[in-house]
Amino acid sequence: MNFKWLLEADEKEFEVALKKAQTVSWRNFGRKIRFYAPSFVYYRTDYYCSSPAAFPSISITGSSCSLKCKHCGGIILNTMYPANSPEELVKLCIDLKRKGAVGCLISGGCLPDGSLPLERFMDAMEEIKRDLGLTMFIHTGVVRKDVAKQLKTVGIDAALIDIIGSDETIREVYSLDVSVSDYENSLRVLHDVNIPTVPHVLVGLHYGRLKGELQALKIIARYNPSAVIIIAFMPIRGTMMEEIMPPMPSVIGKVLVAARFMMPSIPLALGCMRPRGIHRTETDVLAVKAGVNGIAFPAEDAIRLAESLGYEVSFSSLCCSQIIDDLRKQGEN
């Protein structure tokens, strides 16, 4: 189905679409929503206060990234714990476990081909899973099938991967010589080896404008993901795109609605990367209206709206990708 009409919808048409998306969500999941506040950002509201150690993010390349994408410039890596060697990764995870961590997100900067140096860390990750029992999510980047097979052997809990639907965006923003098909192939090999996948779509990555987001969702829908996370471009000081305006909340909302229509029975969450302030409040309110299953670092207005709509509300200090298990557990309680 062509969802271009949705992106061009006026306010009244959008409100109708939001209501339909909410109805689809309630039909498949009931009125349940999970709010997330993972450890890498301090979050405190009248409703919830995050744990400082429950689910940290780790960069296996430290602050190093070969790509220096225009929207990030490697700056996001500085918010993560560095672990530049397998030995450092094991030692760090032992320390984090001692401090109360129940899991971690392993990420890092990309190599020139868009991948992460995961092979070097396989034995360390297997040791962490075996000896510490931490939930382990891996942000893979572009990944080959042999690497996917190794990750399956390690026993990772989920693979997180950004799916980009525009070759032009990959070249201009990532400065990367790969194609949309390389990202689809990465998702395919993760699916083929039966690793739970949580694809991410970054709305407005192409200089704040839509370009390829719907194509990314179409690709994702072919591979039965465990969950889908929608995030949004936010200008970061010190990057080449710091002066670029982010997409409007309504644009992000329309992508959320499209995702729900394309994948009605797949858990859908609004992830942590998105603009702050009033923009976030408006986006989060639209997300609740669209019937998302989870929101990271939610605005209080969105929590209040969920309560007023009769949602069963719960909170977590883990990564929002944990929604792959949380909806099931929430239903069992």
Largest sheet: 11 strands, parallel
Q: Indicate the radius of gyration in whole angstroms.
A: 19 Å
Helix content: 25-40%
Enumerate the spans where pLDDT stays under 50 for 5 or more consecutive residues.
none
Count of DSSP strands? 11
Number of structural units classed as domains: 1
**Silhouette:** globular
Strand residue content: 5-15%
Return the structural class.
alpha/beta
Explain this structure to me?
It is built from twelve helices and eleven strands. It has 333 residues and is of the alpha/beta class. The protein has a single domain (4-332), classed as TIM Barrel.
Short description:
This protein has 333 residues and is an alpha/beta fold. It is built from 12 helices and 11 strands. The protein is globular.
Topology, please?
Elements: H1 4-7, H2 11-29, E1 32-36, E2 57-59, E3 81-82, H3 86-98, E4 103-107, H4 122-132, E5 135-139, H5 145-154, E6 158-162, H6 167-172, H7 180-192, E7 197-203, H8 213-221, E8 228-232, H9 249-262, E9 268-270, H10 277-289, E10 294-296, H11 300-308, E11 312-316, H12 323-332
Parallel strand pairs: 1-10, 1-11, 2-3, 2-4, 4-5, 5-6, 6-7, 7-8, 8-9, 9-10
